[in-house]
Structures are given as C-alpha cells and as structure tokens.
Amino acid sequence: MKLKNIVSVLFAALFCTSLFSQAKMTAAEVDSLTYAQYLKGDWDNLIKSGTKALEHGIDFYYLRMRIGYANYMKQNYRKAIPHYQKAFKENPQDAYALAYLLYSYQFSGRKYDALALSNQIDSLNNPQLYSKFSPGIKSFGFFFTYNNATASNTQQKVGNGIQVSTDGIQKTTNNYNISSMYLSHSLGRHITVYHNISYLQKNEHNFSILDNQVYESENQDLNQWDYNLQFQINPAKGITITPIYNYVSIKIPLSDVGLDDFKDSYSMYGAILSGDIGNFKLGTSYVLGKINKINQKQLGIHATYYPFGNLNLYYNLNTFFKNQEYENQNESDFIHQHTLGFKISNYWWAELSGIFPRFTNFYNPISGGMWNGLEGAGNVININNIFFIKNSKLSLILNTGLYQSVSEFEPIDTPMNRSNKQTYSNFNITGGLLWNF
C-alpha cells in the first residue's frame, strides 16, 4: 500500500468513528475504518465500529474476522465465537478462521464444540491443529484424599444420648482415605465419555442397638467402590446432553466378631441438559435411584456466568431439589452449591466452593461426587488449586475441604426418623495429577 493510502486509512480511523451517528457508512468505509483500527491494535474501537456496522446491516467476511480477532485479543473468547462461526461458514477453507474458532471454544470451556468441529481440520492439512483437537484420549488423572475427623468428644455424647428401645445404628468417623482414577476419551466427534472410579477405606466408631442392647465398636472398617460414568453428547452447537450412571458397592468386614460381612450396592442414574448462550452456560438435571435403600429423586438447575468471556473468572450455581422416600416416609431438601473460579497467574487457577445447608444421601451429578454415609454433612467448604506444570498439559491438583458432619441415630425400620443429633468438624486434603492430551 502506498504511503498516501496508509495516511488516508489512519486518518479515517481517527476522525470517522462517530460517523455512524451522523450518516450511514458504506461497506467500503467500514472496511477502511476497521482495517485501520486492526492495524493499530485499537480493539475497543474496532469492536464498537464493527458492532455498529452490523446493526446497520453491513456484514462481510473480513469484518467478522476483525471483530472476532479484537475480542480474541481481549481474551473475550465467548464474544469472539459467533464472529468466527460466521466467517468460517462463509469461507470453510480458511485455516485462520477455523484455528481461532477452535481455540475460542477451547479457552471458553466449550471443548465439546471444538471436538465436533475437528472433522474440518482434515481438509486444511494442519497436523498441529489435528493432534490437539482430534478424537482420542482427552485426559487422565489419579488422586488421593486423606481425612481426619475431630469426633473424639462427640462419641461420648452419642453413646450417652442413644435410646435403647429402638433397633438402629449411629456412627461417627475416625478417618478415611480415598484413591481414585479419572479418564476421559471421545467416541467419534460428538461424544465424550468420562470415567471415574474410587476406592474408599473408612474407619468408624459404631453404635448398634439390637434387642435393647448397645453394641459399640470403636474401630469398624468400611470399604467402598464407587464408579461414575457420563456420556457427554453434542447434538448441536452449544448444546450437550449427558446421560449419567453411578454405582456403589459397600463391604463392612465382620468376621472378627463371628458374623458374615455386611454387603450392599445401589445405583443412581439420570441426565444433564445444558446449553451455552453468550457468556452464560445454563442447564438442568434429573437423577433417581437408591442410596442406603432409600429412594431418591433429584431435580437440578445449573448456571455458570463468565463475565469476561473466558475461564479467568467465573461463577457457578448448582441448585438441587431432592426428595427421599422410604415406604410411607418422605423427606425433601433444597441444596445449593456455589463456586467462584479465578486465575491467579498463568500457572495457577483456584476455585472456592461451598455446599449448603445440611444434607444426607446426596449425589452431585455435576461433579460426580457421592455423599452416602449414614452421617449427614453440611456447610461444605472447599478450596481447589490447579497448578499447570508442563505446557498446561500436566496439572497438579491440591484441594482442601472443611465440613460439618452430622451424626444421628437411624432406626432400622424407619431410617428417616432420625434422633440424637451430634455435630463435629471434618477436614480433608486431596492431591493428584491430571494429564490433558
């Protein structure tokens, strides 16, 4: 471009910003203005000029690419997405439009849309993009949780408060640890499968009432396997349907007291429907099944807000309307979970999370977490730290949690007629490694 043409373009950028309010600009004038703003890196004014042009019916490929790039440079990836979608639709052979669209999906938490679009990479002969977004194993990790309860003072209160006239059981936790493995992989370009298997080793202080007699065990072991399976299906842009299945198998060794081991198993199943709209992700869920022989029905409403259109700051709200039913007994709960996630540095993200108020027999379909101990829990506070170690592919996870355990006597015949409520604090810490491929 000749020098006088460059001067003319820059002049247009300086003095034509307000022309939309005075007279409708032509496509050529919009092209000159936004190109000058693009050259200067004037992203804010480029977005304003481009948006105003779209409002006046001026829309062309390079305008969409420039508005998308301006939002991308401001890290507002969710605002960049619709512009790159339109540009790529107009020119499916443009590797730049595809690459920026894929990365905008990736950096805004919409990996499933990037996977669905990955079939377009083949025709562009871009091995780097293909290796990053193609189907296959997506992530793998292993984690270990250690818990230490402070129930020593509570155990005496539990023993003193139990009524021996009703057969039943009451427990407090001494300690526990959980070993778990996580794997996600794709099945084709529209389905991602998530597996999580965990093994719980728990030591409890147990009070059992049978025929007006109290049987106390200060150290009773409990072993539990928990498998969580989710299929995230992407039928259309911005939409996911996720069928869920959770299976629990419990064993309490009793051979040392001359009894057969206690064994139990149960399942939960359901689905999550969610959609991305601008800077919001909205969804609903429904799960049902049995936990500790009590029928469960649970409706969830979920919302996540990304104020800057990226993962540097977000707020997530999960609400659950839960109903438990056993024979003629019925109990309803309203549970709400709040999570604030934010970026601390390029290598450190953190999440602050809380679940309120008290609950029993609770399965969280969003996290896959199962709370199925005979004790209830309440006011769960977690601090989750994610440290990126190598090219953001390997992450160190460090989580600390504090919650209130609620120990109650549970009758055998009427398990929801609880009594002898005692509370104490529980603390756990989780560490692990997660690989993203």
Automatic annotation (TrEMBL):
Residues 1-23 form the signal peptide. TPR repeats lie at residues 61-94. It comes from the Bacteria. InterPro entries: TPR-like_helical_dom_sf (IPR011990), TPR_rpt (IPR019734). Keywords: Signal, TPR repeat. The keyword Cell membrane does not apply. This is Tetratricopeptide repeat protein. It comes from Plebeiibacterium marinum.
